[in-house]
Amino acid sequence: MERTTAGWGSGLLGVVIFSGSLPATRMAVAELTPLFVTSGRAVIAALLGAAFLLGLRQDLPGRGDLLPLAIVAIGVVVGFPLLTGFALQRITAAHSVVFVGLLPLSTAIFGVLRGGERPRRVFWIFSSIGAATVAGFALYQGGGGSMAGDLLMVAAILLCGLGYAEGAALSRRLGGWQVISWALLIALPVMAVIALATVPASFAVIGWRAWAGLAYVSLFSMMLGFVFWYRGLALGGIARVGQLQLLQPFFGLSLAALLLGEPVAWTMIASTVIVILCVAGAKRFA
After folding, report:
1. Which position has the higher pLDDT, 239 or 48?
2. Which residue from 113, 144, 109, 103 is spatially nearest to 123, judged by alpha carbons?
3. Nearest CA to 77 among 172, 13, 162?
4. pLDDT band at 273, cuts 50/70/90?
5. Which has the closest alpha carbon to 101: 124, 76, 130, 137?
6. What is the secondary structure of 89-142 as a DSSP string?
7. CA–CA distance, 53 with 67 (Å, rounded to integer)
8. Cα torsion angle, 81, 85, 86, 91, sign
């Protein structure tokens, strides 16, 4: 019982940390390019991960783990941060977090494809309703939306779901925080080159809010959030603790309103509630 409780607590802390990712990214890309934010956060987190791996004397991953680790890197180190960075230049953080409600479903679908499972028909009904809700919200889009931004968010969710599914499978053998650390190190050479090529000409003209956003997504979203998240999954069970991720849109909407002063329309809240109900139903029958 204590192990399960600790897992839920750790997983909830991970979700709260991840909930600040989109508002922080919005702050960063207001003055920094998405390429620099994506590469910069990856380099900073990779250095932190390397320190953890060396300090705790972790074994090197096997050859068979390299391709899955590369997929994790493409999904959560490069793909999701980069695509959301470009999206948040076009849409508000409050608008974007509605799409995060589809992330558990995206992860589940890639888990089904990877595991060869056969979900019940009800699963696909809930999945279709959830996807239709997001599409309808995107078409209805208020002042905080754009078609290009919405499509970028959909692509980001798909890549992140793929990265989460691969990471969940790898974490059974390597450990959760080890997976993200090795994925960051695999991406480090490319990310370091991009960071150097896109570094701002002058740091003096960049405001503190942009640097604060970059610091948050580097230290918390890209590394520490995964430490708590994967620990929660390991202690409490992937299927059960994974349900906590359904709370992320609510936390994200609250943070967007609190930190950025962005309006949270009733349509955003209604869409988020419908998506969360659909994802919960789909997960129930997966």
Report:
1. 48
2. 109
3. 162
4. confident
5. 130
6. TTS-HHHHHHHHTTHHHHHHHHHHHHHT----HHHHHHHHHHHHHHHHHHHH--
7. 19
8. positive
Lowest mean pLDDT among 44-48, 114-118, 141-145, 249-253: 141-145
Distance CA 234, CA 245 (A): 15
Average pLDDT score over residue span 88-97: 79
**Strand, coil or helix: 268:** helix
**What pTM value is reported for the model?**
0.82
List, in sequence order, the alpha helices (H) in 141-224: 147-174, 176-198, 208-216
Give the pLDDT confidence of 76-85 residue by residue, as tens digits.
999 998 898 8
Identify the residue whose tokens are 């809240």. 269
* DSSP SS3 for 233: helix
Percent of the chain whose predicted confidence (pLDDT) is above 90: 30
Angle formed at CA 86 by CA 160 and CA 264, multiple of 5 degrees: 85
Cβ(283)–Cβ(138) under 8 Å?
no
Distance in Å from the first CA to the final CA of the chain: 25
Contact 250, 22 (CB under 8 A): no
Segment 9-22 shows an average pLDDT of 86
Helix (H) or strand (E) holding 279: helix 266-284
Residue 162 CB contacts under 8 Å (≥ 6 apart), including other chains: 71, 74, 75, 106, 110
Span 98-120, mean pLDDT?
74
Structure tokens at 250: 């609510």
